[in-house]
Amino acid sequence: MLLFSLLLSLGFSNEIPPNDDKVKDSYITTQIFSSVKKSKNFGEEICLLNTSSDSIVASYASTKENTDQLRLRLKEDLRLGTISLDHIKTAFANQLVDKIIPHWYGTPWSFGGHTATPNEGKIACGYFISTTLRDMGVNINRYKLAQKSPIDEAKMISCGAVISQVQQETHEKAFEEIDALTQEGLYFIGFDEGHVGYLLKRNGELFLIHSNYLNPVSVCMETLKESRVFKRFTIFHLVAISHNDGLLQRWLDNGTVI
Predict the structure, then answer these.
(1) How many CB atoms lie within 10 A of CB 8?
(2) Any idea what the Cα angle at residue 96 is, between residues 32 and 186, rounded to 5°?
(3) Which domain of life is it from (predicted)?
(4) Which of 166, 211, 220, 254 has the greatest number of beta carbons closer than 10 A?
């Protein structure tokens, strides 16, 4: 119990140095997806994008400002009826996955890491989720969210949406069930009582985006099926992010999630 309490207080942290500069985020993400298909050493591919700390901070600040402008624009377009909520679901996922998160790739994992800045310090798995959601404009207390257990973190992010629990005897069966439960888009995934990350289904493939405590010991994206972290668990908690109407509405209205 003492160890579990310590894990909670530290937010299930991971550490590893971030990277990314003013290179176009869309280009970076394209390269990342190509790397995943080519190599199991996917984390090593994205670690090649390191640049100076100052340029990363400036680029990230600009990305967050653009994200806030996107939120306001989508909210107004939805009010005017020129777009649907489905459009917002796609825009939210693409902005988080292709614009916000790429700045963090390569940031070192650490058990107690809680940096708020890519490429400066280290980041635990829980803090990676809470910080990127906050920087996406979701109104959350990143400390409170990161310090919760995976199932409680899922409950907070769900905003009342269904949380799916997958429990199988093998990770192969767990993968099959997760694949069947998900559609194109972004999800939160909790690994029993020990780890958290984003689950992305894109073009029919499942990817795990997380602060990885195994090689490369940093924030990375890898195919779920080949993830060594995934293979260590048989119990998972899934909740939709990009298909979560309640969460997206709170995002648009700047409503408090936690």
Answers:
(1) 16
(2) 85
(3) Bacteria
(4) 211
Residue 233: which residues within 8 A CB-CB, separation 6 or more? 171, 174, 191, 192, 194, 195
The pLDDT value recorded for residue 218 is 98
Structure tokens at 175: 């993968």
**Dist. CA 65–CA 137, nearest whole Å:** 10
Q: Which residues of 119-152 are buried (b: 16+ CB within 10 A; e: fewer)?
A: bebbbbbbbbbbbbbbbbbbebebeebbbbbbbe
Is pLDDT above 70 for 166? Answer: yes
Distance CA(96)–CA(53), nearest Å, equals 21
Where b means 16+ CB within 10 Å and e means fewer, 24-59 reads ebeebbebbbebbeeeeebbebbbebbeeeeebeeb
Task: Look at residue 219 and tell me whether its pLDDT is greater than 70.
Answer: yes
DSSP H/E element including 214: none
Backbone angles phi, psi at 191, to 5 degrees: -100, 95
What is the predicted pLDDT for the residue at 19? 34
* Residue among 240, 251, 210, 199 at smallest CA distance from 67: 251
For residue 21, the one-letter residue type is: D
Q: In the predicted model, what is the mean pLDDT of the chain? A: 85
Token pair belonging to 35: 């790397």
Alpha-helix runs per DSSP H in 216-255: 245-253
